[in-house]
């Protein structure tokens, strides 16, 4: 493809220096390293989610060094004939030596150098059919290692040749490749920060006729949680298409002057934002729930404490920094079933504009050793990718019960203990990453949860959500639930609220649903729900 230069890329200042030092310098001035008696870097591994610009960074580094670039796409190297893949790999490096200074870019290195079975790498459940494939990938890994160590049969001298590999699965790469002398430098190319995204927007908007002010671009950058460079490009494209569609609707002739002066507006971008889903989040069900505080009746004190824990970090960061106040890392909502714990978690995510990752504790379990911990790791990684976000773990008691005293069936450590240890590790890492991730969990059996999770620094805010014992709260829940129901004048919600002692929020919602059904059973053309229908539904739905 065409050459890519660093100035064509936005939000890369933190990677640029490392790439110039580890790629451009060994290619242009290798003697500097010799002077200090150190070996020039051999390889650089760029890793991070898809679409963050890893391949483009590698191309820009080659351009900055004025070096030749050889691109190897991992999957394309794998051939069906024994020895073919190794020969192809050796051929690439021979060409690199011939045309040096040269950057060899291996895209998706995890496909040609996966962790080997047994011995060095991570053992995987290869099953019976994976033998040949494993043997082949082992041979390819061995060939790559011998070339990079300069001990291959051809005895290639890799002076002024640097290998840049990219992957979005660093844990799947053979460990032997990641030791010093091979891929000396690992650079994480993560999801850009709002400031980096701002730079990417500025570059992508260069060639687009638009009406966005600087303030608009700032807001867009902040609002596109989890968007990587490729997503920003897709968003700008989609907005331009929307401007085009508008023009067609207005039946302007394509060649008219009015048409030529048409520009992309803020509204086009808002439309496009609903259509473009950030690639880092596509594999996980993430929602920004549309639940407001007004949709949850009662619980005023709990709402206030939740706002402090989650919303204040977004709304008043300066004030919190000024007083050195840190928000709680985790909030545990506990109380009887049906008291709107999940609704409260959704409302806090929605009101603070955060992405919402919801999972039920037992869903994270797997019968395969190591899979449950991996599911916990993946959940937190996705939350960091889509930050600012809220992780909501429902029924957490099913996931992290009080630890057993050994005898877990598989070497004394049962799956509960391993999952709990993993969750403790992830909770301790939430703050360190500076990632705006809030963890909210819900349970109706708090006594089953391991005390290690409830100490300060983990779930350090415990909020009890009781039954709505106050008639005023019950009336408020009734008002919220019947907001969209046509009630007849004879329905007195205050009196009804006073009668519903012992009902939970979920029970009250069920009561209102049943009242609607009772009205329809009486007359399918009825226009209002009457007090008699609520009386009928109260007999059908006891608390």
Automatic annotation (TrEMBL):
| Keywords assigned | ATP-binding, Nucleotide-binding
Q: Which Pfam families match?
A: AAA (PF00004), AAA_lid_3 (PF17862)
Q: Which residues does the UniProt record annotate as the domain AAA+ ATPase? A: 40-193, 327-469
In its keyword annotation, does this UniProt entry include Translocase? no
Q: Which GO terms describe its cellular component?
A: chloroplast
Q: What is this protein called?
A: AAA+ ATPase domain-containing protein
Which SUPFAM superfamilies does the UniProt record give?
Answer: P-loop containing nucleoside triphosphate hydrolases
> From the Swiss-Prot or TrEMBL record, what is one GO molecular function term?
ATP binding
